[in-house]
Amino acid sequence: MNISSAVTGVRPEAYGALGDGVTDDTTAFVNAIAAANKLQPLVLMPGRTYIVSNLTFQGSASGPAEEVAQWGIIGNGATIKGKAAATGTMLLFGAATDTAVGYRNLIVRDLRVVGHATYTNGIQFGNVNAGNAVIVLGEVRNVVVRDCTGASAIGILIRSAVQLDLQDVYGANCTTGLQVGTTAGAGIVTTLSLRHCKFRLCTTGAAFFTGTGIRFWNNVYESNTSTGLRLRYLSTAPTPIGDIVAIGDWFEANTTYGLLCDSDGTGAGGVTPGRWINAAFNGGTSGALRVEDGDRLIFDSCHFVGAGAINLPSVNLRVFIINRFGSGTTTGAGVATSLTELTTGFLSGGSNTRGLRLVGPVVLTNGENIRSYKADGTTETSLVLVTANDLAKFGVAGTTIADNGTLTIGAVGGLNGLLVVFDRNVGTRHALYLLHGNNATATEVSDPSGLFTPTLGNAGTINIGASAGNYVVENKSGGSIGIQVALVGN
Question: Across all residues in the chain, what is the average pLDDT?
């Protein structure tokens, strides 16, 4: 997005601003904003430092005569510095009492904003009224916000915006570098993008409490004293956070969490859907990545470093990892029941070992299958997997698949036998079925195909049931110490 064209606008110097870093230029800026009449940006002088407090900018609502009007600030490398002991918000785009929808074509560019401990926010986009999309179509480019260090101070706060593009934004030494929405949940935020932004040396680099249609490209969250990026689902938000795609983000040396995805604890939902591609996670005493209740997330070709780098503390979540790289390990109750990993390409068996590895709960329904091929490209077999409930009875936490195709199912107390039946003579219904029993009874068996009436004795005795056909049966009972089953096919 680039809505800027020719640099035209109103200069605060025409209304008495000095930009000497000493004089209070607030009155000159207020008069310049009025002269801009919501249709032009302020244009600052390169190299100057303007001392101001609590400036409010308003744009124009969409209309035929105002579609191309720009409003905001073109900084040309100048600095806006907060007046000493001032409170509130330094630069507010969209008045606090504003109820209009659709201020178009905001531009904030080439600007340095320096706050201090008494300011609440450095820059705020959108008002505090719930349900309004105040900013529509805007760009924030090459902007530095720093030193907003009060107890709840925020470098950049986005309360209400649609189609806002942040590019080359740098937030440093703030309590929170960037915040989208608040814990109160008010304000609509959709179609927001962050590109080549960096947040470091804050308590929290960036925090999202609302927003859908969020896109991240090559952002850095580094050396923040708590969390690099926090995404929190709020059931009360007008636009609960979701529909996230992130490419190339980097989380480095954040003290507690790199990426934290959490919820409000109501059980109403979580961060979903979300996908991170080619991201790097390194650092965080409680996880370079921590995913909590209700989240549904995918991580594709990401790099994880450190013990417990992937922290999944809850079973009420779903995480799918494709081609994980790095030395990072997993931890938490959700690893056994809520994490699925897929590895494709060259596996650990050597440079010529190609294939696909699935680890964790995998469910294929309604005839979906995994199909293998011969060297000439023709179909060889296909496998239909049992339900997640069946897998749980075999202890998926200890399930592994070796490069040679051996399936190892972890030991579960009381499990005494496993039957694998591969049916060769039912047309296209080639399938793998898992049948199970326990020490207490020999009747706990299942056959998803409905082709058999099997029973399984405590000692591993198998009765398939009356059915004609050519079957290959492998029964390798391991009692309570684990079971290995060789996968068989035609």
Answer: 74
Report the alpha-carbon distance of residue 158 to residue 168 in Å, rounded: 16
């640099």: which residue's tokens? 7
Give the pLDDT band of residue 162 (cuts 50, 70, 90): confident
Q: What 3-state class would DSSP assign to 483?
A: strand
d(CA 211, CA 158): 10
Domain co-membership, 31 together with 129: yes
Q: What percent of the chain has pLDDT over 70?
A: 62
Instruction: Based on the fold, state whether residues 201 and 88 are members of the same structural domain.
Output: yes
By C-alpha distance, which of 424, 428, 440 is closest to 473? 424
**Domain stops at, among 319, 339, 359:** 359
Give the dihedral of Cα atoms 317, 318, 324, 326; nearest 10 deg: 0
Spatial CA neighbour of 66 closest among 100, 43, 38, 98: 38
The answer to whether 283 and 253 have CB atoms below 8 angstroms apart is: yes
- For residue 400, the 8-state DSSP code is E
- Closest by CA position to 341, among listed 390, 299, 313: 299
pTM given for the model: 0.73
Question: Residues 311, 314, 315, 319: is their CA dihedral positive or negative?
Answer: negative
Burial class (CB in 10 A: 0-12, 13-18, 19+), 70: buried
DSSP 49-74: EEEE--EEE---B--TTTTT--EEEE
Bond prior to 273 in cis (omega within 30° of 0)? yes
pLDDT band at 385 (very low <50, low <70, confident <90, very high): very low
> The tokens of 207 are what?
């925090």
CA distance 54 to 88: 7
The predicted-structure confidence for 10-30, as pLDDT tens digits, reads as follows: 999 999 999 999 999 999 999
Phi, psi (rounded to 5 degrees) for 187: 100, 140
DSSP 8-state secondary structure symbol assigned to residue 223: S
What is the extent of the structural domain holding 386? 370-486
Beta strands 135-146; 103-114: pairing state: parallel
Check the CA dihedral 359-407-489-428 and report its sign: negative
How many domains does one find in the chain?
2
Residue 352 CB-density burial (10 A; 0-12 exposed, 13-18 middle, 19+ buried): exposed
How many angstroms separate the CA atoms of 192 and 212, rounded?
8
Instruction: Report the distance separating Cα 475 and Cα 454, nearest Å.
Output: 13
Cα–Cα distance, 212 to 366 (Å, whole number): 31
At 95, is the pLDDT very low, low, confident or very high (cuts 50, 70, 90)? low
Single residue among 359, 379, 406 that ends a domain in this structure? 359
Strand duo 379-383 + 370-373: pairing: antiparallel
